Amino acid sequence: xxxxxxxxxxxxxxxxxxxxxxxxxxxxxxxxxxxxxxxxxxxxxxxxxxxxxxxxxxxxxxxxxxxxxxxxxxxxxxxxxxxxxxxxxxxxxxxxxxxxxxxxxxxxxxxxxxxxxxxxxxxxxxxxxxxxxxxxxxxxxxxxxxxxxxxxxxxxxxxxxx
Length: 162
Ligand SMILES: C=C(O[C@@H]1C=C(C(=O)O)C=C[C@H]1O)C(=O)O
Hints:
Number of strands: 3
Number of helices: 5
Low-confidence stretches: 1-37
Shape: elongated
Bound molecules: the ligand C=C(O[C@@H]1C=C(C(=O)O)C=C[C@H]1O)C(=O)O
Structural class: alpha+beta
GO molecular function: chorismate mutase activity
Mean pLDDT: 77
Organism: Pseudoalteromonas citrea
Keywords: Isomerase
Distance between the termini: 76 Å
Protein name: chorismate mutase
Number of domains: 2
InterPro entries: Chorismate_II_sf, Chorismate_mutase-related, CM_dom_sf, CM_II_prokaryot
């Protein structure tokens, strides 16, 4: 029988719902290796073939430590992502507020906007932190590149408008 540890969590419930034990179970994976989308084909003692769609009630593999069903776990994870995205934008706003103040200071003291030595230090710190946290170097470079570019543009605008 093809019953995997993953499906054994789900199958007994549905079999009980059928009210009769199947003679055999055969699992048809709708999309191979996509464990969250599958159909279970059941033949009852009476020889009736039935197909149970697990699409809406799919349990996640217990080995990943998820207890809830797919939709609940997905909603919970996405709510976490929403919070993080909000924090990210809040932090960007905070950074730009400081950057603008630096821009004003530079304008008053007739200093250039760009400070490549400081930029190198900023990037090195970010890369070091990213390495510790397992964030890709490529992503970190791209992210810092965008931040530095926009920070300098914001400063240049402050200097122009002052
Ligand atoms: C904010 C500054 O101005 C520019 C922007 C930087 C940044 O966004 O981190 C760093 C160096 C400068 O090119 C600064 O000098 O500190």
